[in-house]
């Protein structure tokens, strides 16, 4: 038997119910569904920024306005998918990291819950922007303003998620943070953020290159001057530059990670990811300089590389999380086990054997009175109900009527709350308690 | 106990959940479950009519599309977000309970999620292809079929979630089976579904009627016919909604017998229960009036008063939701977990040793005269704050003042006697979980709060205290 003393790290007990699926399967679902969710989140953020950019450019060249509008049309669809696809990872993280996730949520609760109205309003702004395009064609500042507020929201909301997901990894900080803004300034939130926003641009560039490069899209009938090839080059260049910038944000993120979660396996996974990223950059460069349609062998190779790269990074993220929480999880499991052992002892009255001897009084009426009636009735003062000294004389020699009242009370005194009935008392119980009430001396 | 406990000291945590949940249910029932069949039906009418009279057909089609547009915008923003919001809010208000429910209902929610994904895909296809589908008759037919599928899936999402709700109210099934199947066989499942389905249809009708009355121009020759059609829709579902309400109403006390043997005797429940009848009668009367008026004389429908049936039907549903919440007490999960998030099974331990020793989120372990108020505050946070505030909604101070019918300084001894056995006479209250010293501290805290009111900030504003916990553990051999 070991006695463990933990220093300022909260060690709560875990939920005493088994996981609904084997842990590895839940982890797989979590990583996969999260990446799917974040893919569409990336597309909303990147797409809205590009819409804004091209709409401004569209003031001079109408084609860019059309391009912006085409991109905007994808956002409102992607955002619906992003939301529904967010439910599965939310479910999974709730199950796998119940204690950690909920604790972090509670510590930043007011800002956390503000996600709900905030995202709803941001989405409404995107609809407003999309459906007021013609009506506000002559009033671009307002039209761009609507979009601007929407983008501003979308740029801030990731901070809330990142802060929470970061805070949950560090139980030793839970006693220190005082609200959201404290948690926001924990190391690593900002590097994560830039890593994420840059990724959004990269993914969106790739998506839009495909979207405008697809066979069914007839650039000639939509644009006056822009060609498919130009759009492809433009979009892939965004991907290239953004992916290149990750070579700054990636190391920054890695170096600011608190060391407790870093292990060799994490290191190798990340190195593998970086290697892939280098190959990816080369292939992207070649793809940009390829003439002709986009969707050839090289394009699918790039897509595949991206998928594997993202899978590596998603896995790395999970390895870090597991490493960071490993010790704490173990402590929590030990405490939970100790707790349930104590619960068992309590059920068997083994914790304080001396105290159990107190019982054994056979005054049933008195017991019933103490645990039920005394809640509202005192001897000579008014509590919730009138004092016993006032009630008892009313029923002198009238046991049956008193029993009846206790069983199904009416309401006589309008300045008191109505009494609860005791229909679940047996006749013996009613008799005992009523007799006790009538025999007891209430006036002293 | 095992989580920092988010706390809103004015509105209360439950109100936060209630606001988000009610908005969600209203949007879900009025603009999805009931609305999609109505829109599809109107589109179909337009399609049929366009064969004999293209002009009229176009008007019907256009009105249906506009209704769908509004539903599309609202359901994919506020509707979707409040759906996720219920989770967010519930996990803040009672993390232990949501954490437990998710472990047991993972598959149910996962299924719900898949149906939900399909629903979203259907609504996007249905809405975004509307204009294109009007180009040919064959496409139109297929489009209408999409509407039918969308209606089915909207209904299915509700049918699954009702099972989960039913399960949470059913005391026996959690302890014995812990499976979703018992959610479907729950005695309240069918009554709830039979109630919700026609009410959703009726609500959708009232909303559609109001919108159409405003959107359609006065000189539109087909306006009366369209309004008449929607009124008839309301009239058609009205008796079913009333019957469903009665069925549900009738089943509630019978289904409760398991967990609240004498709940019928408590005044609060009685008040709620009888208010249901009045609400149901008034709403039904309003619904019938509007339905009959609109069906017989659509031109006479008072445009600006059409908001009344919408509000009435919202109140109708809201009252039932409130009651459903009420009958769950004192548990949050029937006979397994009390509303304060503590397990029934853990109670003996806590009552013998006190709760504060077991939480890492309070600086206090042993109560002394110096730390009594601080300790009382911690006890309040663990044992009461999931439902009560200090001075806001469901204020603990006001509750006592009202009970003793006085604003005199509260008598700590009386409060202690009350809290120690309140569960015997106030059946919706869980038993006090701690030991006598904690009860004493809690009473002192309440009395102190009455004398010197001071807002109790939650950890989202002031952080949490953390203490070392000493625990013993054996190796798994035991």
What are its keywords?
heterodimer, A: 444 residues, mainly alpha, 15 helices, 69% helix, elongated, disordered N terminus, B: 478 residues, two-stranded antiparallel sheet, 3 strands, 70% helix
Can you characterise this structure?
The complex is a heterodimer of chains A (444) and B (478). Chain A has 444 residues and is mainly alpha-helical. Chain A contains 15 helices and one strand, in the order E-H-H-H-H-H-H-H-H-H-H-H-H-H-H-H. Chain B has helices at 13-33, 35-52, 54-93, 95-128, 130-133, 137-169, 171-176, 181-185, 189-215, 223-256, 267-296, 307-326, 347-353, 372-383, 396-403, 412-425, 436-451, 459-462; strands at residues 331-333, 337-338, 470-473. With 478 residues, chain B is mostly helical. Chain B has 18 helices and three strands. In chain B, helix 9 (189-215) runs antiparallel to helix 12. The model of chain B is unreliable at 257-265 (pLDDT under 50). At the A-B interface, strand 1, helix 2, helix 3, helix 4 and helix 11 of A face helix 3, helix 4, helix 13, helix 16 and helix 18 of B.
Brief synopsis:
The complex is a heterodimer of chains A (444) and B (478). Chain A is mostly helical and 444 residues long.
Number of strands of chain B: 3
Q: Indicate the percent of residues in helices of chain A.
A: 55-70%
N-to-C series of helices and strands of chain B: HHHHHHHHHHHHEEHHHHHHE
Radius of gyration of chain A: 34 Å
Seen as an oligomer or otherwise, the chain set is heterodimer
**What percentage of residues of chain B falls in helices of 4 or more residues?**
55-70%
Major beta sheet summary of chain B: 2 strands, antiparallel
The assigned structural class of chain A equals: mainly alpha
Rounded to an integer, what's the Rg of chain B over CA atoms?
26 Å
Intertermini distance of chain A:
55 Å
**Which segments of chain B are poorly predicted (pLDDT under 50) over 5 or more consecutive residues?**
257-265
Shape of chain B: elongated
State which percent range the strand residues of chain B make up. Answer: under 5%
Uncertain residue segments of chain A: 1-7, 355-361
Strand content of chain A: under 5%
C-alpha end-to-end distance of chain B: 26 Å
């Amino acid at each position: 038997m070991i006695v463990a003393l933990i220093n300022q790290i909260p060690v709560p007990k875990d939920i005493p119910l088994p996981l609904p699926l084997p842990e590895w399967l839940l982890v797989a679902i979590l990583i996969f569904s999260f990446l799917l969710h974040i893919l569409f989140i990336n597309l909303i953020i990147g797409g809205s920024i590009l819409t804004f950019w091209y709409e401004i450019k569209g003031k001079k060249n109408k084609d860019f306005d059309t391009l912006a509008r085409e991109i905007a049309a994808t956002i409102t669809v992607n955002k619906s998918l992003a939301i529904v696809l967010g439910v599965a990872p939310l479910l999974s993280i709730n199950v796998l990291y119940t204690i950690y996730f909920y604790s972090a949520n509670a510590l930043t609760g007011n800002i956390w819950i503000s996600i709900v109205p905030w995202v709803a309003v941001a989405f409404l702004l995107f609809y407003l922007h999309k459906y007021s395009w013609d009506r506000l064609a002559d009033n671009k500042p307002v039209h761009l303003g609507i979009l601007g507020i929407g983008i501003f929201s979308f740029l801030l909301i990731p901070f809330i998620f990142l802060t929470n997901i970061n805070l949950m990894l560090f139980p030793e900080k839970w006693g220190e943070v005082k609200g959201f803004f404290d948690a926001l300034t924990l190391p690593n939130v900002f590097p994560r953020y830039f890593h994420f926003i840059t990724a959004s641009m990269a993914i969106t560039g790739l998506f839009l290159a495909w979207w405008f490069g697809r066979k069914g899209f007839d650039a000639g009938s939509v644009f006056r001057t822009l060609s498919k090839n130009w759009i492809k080059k433009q979009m892939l260049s965004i991907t290239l530059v953004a992916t290149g910038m990750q070579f700054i944000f990636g190391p920054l993120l890695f170096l600011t990670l608190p060391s407790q979660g870093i292990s060799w396996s994490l290191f190798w996974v990340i190195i593998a990811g970086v290697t892939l990223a280098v190959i990816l950059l080369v292939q992207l460069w070649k793809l940009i300089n390829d003439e002709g349609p986009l969707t050839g062998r090289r394009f699918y190779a790039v897509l595949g590389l991206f998928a594997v790269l993202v899978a590596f990074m998603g896995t790395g993220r999970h390895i870090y999380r597991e490493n960071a929480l490993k010790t704490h999880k173990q402590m929590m499991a030990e405490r939970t086990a100790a707790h349930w052992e104590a619960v068992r002892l309590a059920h068997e009255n083994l914790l304080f054997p001396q105290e159990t001897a107190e019982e054994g009084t056979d005054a049933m009426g008195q017991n019933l009175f103490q645990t039920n009636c005394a809640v509202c009735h005192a001897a000579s003062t008014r509590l919730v109900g009138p004092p016993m000294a006032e009630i008892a004389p009313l029923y002198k020699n009238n046991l049956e009527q008193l029993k009846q009242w206790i069983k199904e009370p009416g309401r006589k005194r309008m300045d008191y709350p109505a009494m609860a009935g005791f229909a679940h008392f047996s006749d013996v119980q009613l008799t005992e308690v009523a007799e006790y009430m009538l025999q007891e001396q209430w006036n002293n | 106990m095992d989580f920092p406990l988010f706390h809103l000291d004015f509105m209360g945590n439950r109100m936060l959940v209630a606001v988000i949940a009610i908005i969600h249910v209203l949007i879900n029932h009025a603009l999805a479950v009931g609305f999609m069949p109505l829109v599809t039906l109107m589109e179909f009418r337009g399609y049929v009519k366009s064969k004999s009279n293209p002009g009229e057909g176009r008007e019907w089609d256009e009105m249906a599309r506009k209704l769908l547009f509004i539903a599309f915008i609202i359901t994919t923003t506020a509707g979707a977000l409040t759906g996720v919001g219920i989770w967010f809010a519930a996990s803040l208000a009672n993390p232990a309970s949501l954490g437990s429910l998710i472990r047991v209902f993972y598959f149910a929610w996962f299924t719900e999620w898949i149906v939900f994904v399909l629903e979203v895909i259907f609504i996007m296809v249905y809405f975004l292809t509307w204009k294109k589908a009007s180009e040919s008759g064959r496409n139109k037919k297929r489009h209408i079929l999409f509407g039918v599928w969308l209606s089915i899936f909207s209904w299915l999402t509700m049918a699954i979630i009702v099972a989960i709700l039913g399960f949470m109210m059913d005391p026996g099934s959690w302890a014995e089976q812990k499976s979703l199947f018992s959610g479907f066989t729950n005695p309240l499942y069918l009554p709830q579904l039979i109630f919700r389905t026609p009410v959703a249809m009726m609500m959708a009708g009232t909303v559609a009627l109001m919108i159409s009355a405003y959107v359609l121009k006065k000189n539109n020759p087909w306006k009366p016919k369209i309004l008449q059609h929607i009124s008839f829709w309301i009239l058609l579902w009205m008796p079913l909604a009333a019957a469903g309400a009665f069925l549900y109403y009738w089943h509630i006390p019978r289904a409760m017998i398991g967990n609240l043997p004498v709940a019928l005797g408590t005044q609060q429940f009685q008040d709620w229960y009888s208010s249901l009848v009045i609400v149901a009668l008034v709403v039904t009367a309003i619904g019938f009036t509007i339905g009959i008026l609109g069906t017989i004389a659509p031109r006479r429908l008072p445009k600006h008063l059409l908001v009344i049936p919408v509000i009435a039907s919202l109140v109708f549903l809201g009252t039932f939701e409130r009651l459903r919440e009420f009958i769950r007490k004192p548990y949050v999960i029937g006979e397994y977990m009390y509303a304060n998030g503590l397990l029934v099974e853990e109670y003996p331990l806590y009552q013998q040793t006190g709760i504060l020793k077991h939480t890492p989120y309070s600086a206090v372990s042993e109560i002394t005269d110096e730390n009594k108020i601080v300790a009382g505050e911690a006890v309040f946070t663990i044992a009461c704050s999931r439902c009560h505030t200090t001075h806001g909604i469901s204020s603990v101070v006001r509750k006592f003042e009202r009970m003793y019918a006085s604003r005199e300084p509260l008598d700590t001894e009386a409060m202690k006697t009350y809290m120690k056995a309140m569960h015997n006479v106030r059946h919706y209250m869980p038993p006090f979980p701690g030991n006598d010293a904690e009860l004493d501290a809690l009473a002192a805290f309440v009395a102190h709060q009455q004398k010197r009111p001071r807002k109790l900030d939650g950890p989202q504003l002031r952080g949490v205290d953390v203490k070392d916990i000493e625990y013993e553990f054996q190796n798994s051999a035991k």
